[in-house]
């Protein structure tokens, strides 16, 4: 009996779509063709023999409609060629079909692949994107969140250094207002806020273990003095690998620049590496906290006529412009591209299931081996 009932429903729906399809087809009027009629929620309701309210709730993922009905409605919408009316949806849900993405780092371009994939993935869900660039040390973030609220965004992703611990309350308030929220911050945990994390510590450890595998034992790490964030986590991975190998770590820290902009990283790291070399530092390998630090180290070494990688190997992180270095730089590629798609997916899942538990995605780096690294002399 159940199978017969299902069969009848299917035939009924097929008849309905054929009937509706006749009204959607173009009609020839004189020498021209009139455009197809726009498919509405009313058409979908007629097709499924349900009320319009049910269709509206199903398309907007509003509670009160079964998952089975949501599937039927979405399938019917696709078959009929229904296109979502974002304005009408916003009136129903109180939210527009918009997602926000808030970033702090735009100079080095490390998050450009994230933005691209975020926009493309959002588009596949019929969502638009609003980008906000902020300085976390000013009031920019408060203004950015206010603007996103005014635009009635459905969800927001906070990337990298866009937020700090002092901003936790802002993110929690936004999430509790009904906006889907996620962040790439490693130190932020909240039941209603999902996270996408780059395994920065694992990358630092992997870079060090890679050099250890080439026979290097005297490995220096060049970075600014940091107590948190990406550079700090990469340094912690380096320290872990050195201690595991029972070797003494060598930290070459930039202490006289508490704030280093991306545009200053090459110059500042060049000066610090040259200073350390002139003071007698003789590592067989140098790891830069990112590609810019590593590039600065390479400039300093070349100026001192140190052959790379014959005498000193150099490794960076991010793989932004590493291929343009001479010699081409070995780098650990940050998984920023995949993270954009992951961020949108988590926002969509949060919108469908607002009460579900916190979800955490951890993304691994890829080691891109090039010409700036080689076996240590002692390993030959």
Write the layout of secondary structure elements.
Elements: H1 2-24, E1 27-29, E2 32-34, H2 41-48, H3 52-60, H4 67-80, H5 86-93, E3 98-103, H6 112-124, E4 128-133, H7 140-150, E5 155-158, H8 168-176, E6 180-183, E7 193-198, H9 200-213, E8 219-224, H10 229-244, E9 250-254, H11 265-278, E10 285-288, H12 291-303, E11 313-318, E12 330-333, H13 336-352, E13 360-363, E14 366-368
Parallel strand pairs: 3-4, 3-5, 5-6, 6-7, 7-13, 8-9, 8-10, 10-11, 11-12
Antiparallel strand pairs: 1-2, 12-14
Helix pairs in contact: 1-2, 2-3, 2-4, 3-4, 6-13, 9-10, 11-12
GO molecular function: DNA-binding transcription factor activity; transcription cis-regulatory region binding
Organism: Paenibacillus ginsengarvi
Protein name: LacI family transcriptional regulator
Average of pLDDT: 84
Estimated structural class = alpha/beta
Continuous helix count = 13
CATH class of the largest domain: Alpha Beta
Question: Can you identify the CATH superfamily of the largest domain?
Answer: Response regulator
Rg: 27 Å
**CATH topology value of the largest domain:** Rossmann fold
Query: Describe the biggest sheet?
Result: 6 strands, parallel
List the domain count as a whole number. Answer: 3
Give a description of the structure:
There is one protein chain. The protein is of the alpha/beta class and 380 residues long. It folds into 3 domains: 2-27 and 37-83, 434 Repressor (Amino-terminal Domain) (Orthogonal Bundle), CATH 1.10.260; 98-199 and 336-365, Response regulator (Rossmann fold), CATH 3.40.50.2300; 200-333 and 367-379, 3-Layer(aba) Sandwich (Rossmann fold), CATH 3.40.50. The chain has helices spanning 2-24, 41-48, 52-60, 67-80, 86-93, 112-124, 140-150, 168-176, 200-213, 229-244, 265-278, 291-303, 336-352, and strands at 27-29, 32-34, 98-103, 128-133, 155-158, 180-183, 193-198, 219-224, 250-254, 285-288, 313-318, 330-333, 360-363, 366-368. Helix 3 (52-60) crosses helix 4, helix 9 (200-213) runs parallel beside helix 10 (229-244) and helix 11 (265-278) packs across helix 12 (291-303). The longest helix has 23 residues, at 2-24. The chain is elongated, with a radius of gyration of 27 Å. Keywords: DNA-binding, Transcription, Transcription regulation. GO terms for molecular function: DNA-binding transcription factor activity; transcription cis-regulatory region binding. Pfam families: LacI, Peripla_BP_3. InterPro entries: HTH_LacI, LacI/GalR-like_sensor, Lambda_DNA-bd_dom_sf, Peripla_BP_I.
């Amino acid at each position: 009996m159940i199978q017969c009932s299902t069969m009848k429903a299917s035939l009924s729906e097929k008849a309905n779509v054929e009937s509706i399809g006749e009204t959607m087809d173009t009609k020839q009027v004189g020498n021209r063709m009139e455009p197809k009629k726009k498919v509405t929620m009313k058409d979908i309701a007629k097709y499924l023999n349900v009320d319009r309210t049910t269709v509206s709730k199903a398309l907007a993922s509003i509670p009160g409609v079964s998952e089975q009905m949501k599937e039927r409605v979405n399938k019917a919408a696709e078959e009929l060629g229904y296109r979502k009316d974002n304005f009408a949806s916003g009136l129903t849900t109180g939210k527009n079909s918009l997602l926000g993405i808030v970033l702090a780092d735009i100079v080095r371009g490390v998050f450009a692949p994230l933005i691209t994939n975020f926009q493309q993935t959002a588009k596949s869900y019929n969502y638009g994107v609003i980008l906000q660039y902020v300085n976390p040390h000013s009031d920019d973030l408060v203004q950015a969140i206010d603007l996103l609220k005014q635009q009635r965004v459905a969800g927001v992703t906070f990337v990298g250094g866009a937020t700090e611990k002092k901003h936790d309350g802002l993110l929690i308030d936004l999430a509790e207002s009904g906006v889907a929220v996620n962040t790439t911050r490693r130190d932020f945990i909240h039941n209603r806020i999902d996270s996408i994390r780059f395994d920065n510590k694992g990358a630092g450890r992997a870079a060090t273990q890679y050099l250890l595998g080439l026979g290097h034992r005297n490995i220096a790490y060049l970075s600014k003095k940091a107590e948190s964030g990406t550079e700090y986590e990469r340094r912690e991975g380096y320290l872990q690998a050195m201690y595991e190998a029972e070797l003494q770590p060598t930290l070459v820290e930039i202490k006289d620049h508490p704030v280093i902009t991306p545009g200053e990283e090459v110059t500042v790291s060049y000066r610090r590496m040259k200073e350390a070399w002139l003071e007698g530092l003789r590592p067989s390998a140098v790891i830069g906290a990112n590609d810019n630090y590593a590039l600065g180290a390479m400039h300093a070494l070349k100026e001192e006529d140190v052959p790379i990688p014959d005498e000193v190997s150099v490794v960076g992180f991010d793989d932004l412009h590493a291929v343009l270095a001479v010699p081409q730089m070995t780098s650990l590629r940050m998984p920023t591209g995949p993270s954009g798609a992951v961020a949108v997916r988590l926002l969509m899942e949060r919108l469908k299931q607002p009460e579900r538990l916190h979800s955490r995605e951890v993304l691994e780096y890829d080691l891109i081996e090039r010409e700036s690294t080689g076996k240590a002399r002692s390993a030959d």
